Amino acid sequence: MSTPATLVNPPLKDELDIVIPTIRNLDFLEMWRPFFQPYHLIIVQDGDPTKTINVPEGFDYELYNRNDINRILGPKASCISFKDSACRCFGFLVSKKKYIFTIDDDCFVAKDPSGKEINALAQHIHNLLAPSTPLFFNTLYDPYREGADFVRGYPFSMREGVPTAVSHGLWLNIPDYDAPTQLVKPRERNTRYVDAVMTIPKGTLFPMCGMNLGFNRELIGPAMYFGLMGDGQPIGRYDDMWAGWCTKVITDHLGLGIKTGLPYIWHSKASNPFVNLKKEYKGIYWQEEIIPFFQSVVLPKDCTTVQKCYIELSKLVKEKLGPIDPYFSKLAEAMVTWIEAWDEINSPASESTAPAAVDVKKK
């Protein structure tokens, strides 16, 4: 895992930002250099804002720490989590690009079964640029991949598909398990490379992992809020799950698609299962009520934008989940604050002036 990959021609170079949440030096970028160097990076520094994060030379990036988040958002900064990777959604907020790819700093370049290094970013872009098929399942999976097509019996009226909003990638080596599964399978590693991309059917929820994720910011960006997690909150490690559940309900309502499968990355580091259990235990209990809630959500027909859908969803969260625990009422309010911040940062007046980061470096 120490040899840099081979340089490639960058697709969507000026239309995509790479968002990385971190608390440490970003040495992992050296392995990704041939794939990431042509792109603009948005680094969201979590934890102590006085700590210096070292970024390898040659990358075009801007770095935001907690002081920057507080300065840019003012009172609305309360909706951005602290001491949790959920802070990554601040990068989604300030990006001016059409597409986002987000990755964790313990994820490295994986290899396919032939030994070839996988350009995860290029595969995400391919997934996002091709349609999805959420209304009717194709048994050859993604019909838009080379060498595949729609099978016999697939309705011709549905073969145009729908726009793809999200590309959800997977991981080799350390699987994305919850704490109880980590504890009973401490040595388990994912070695299975499944060469498949598929659309998640309409009406089906899924557990979204944020460590290897691409999305069309223009289509679904306002729904990509990773909630209130970490410092001062009763729950952690459900940030990407929350965003995934909200996003899936909204994409289903708006007629958009979500793909999962390729690309794989190499997840190098297993987090401490006992620490994870402390973060997750309320979520493990609560999700038995959260999942039926999302399965039952029906958004009104007049919710024709992501923002309108999300505000309506926040009302339902407060009404239906609020009685479970006061946290959900607080989360519902943060969802509204997030949309207010999104509209403020992304208003036409602010489009021409990107917020100043603490550290900006050009190639």
Automatic annotation (TrEMBL):
Keywords: Cell wall biogenesis/degradation, Glycoprotein, Golgi apparatus, Isomerase. InterPro entries: Nucleotide-diphossugar_trans (IPR029044), RGP (IPR004901), RGP_fam (IPR037595). It is an enzyme of class 5 (isomerase). It comes from the Eukaryota. It is found in: Golgi apparatus. It catalyses: UDP-beta-L-arabinofuranose = UDP-beta-L-arabinopyranose. Signal peptide: none annotated. Transmembrane segments: none annotated. The keyword Glycoprotein applies. Its EC number is 5.4.99.30. Belongs to the RGP family. Probable UDP-L-arabinose mutase involved in the biosynthesis of cell wall non-cellulosic polysaccharides. This is UDP-arabinopyranose mutase.
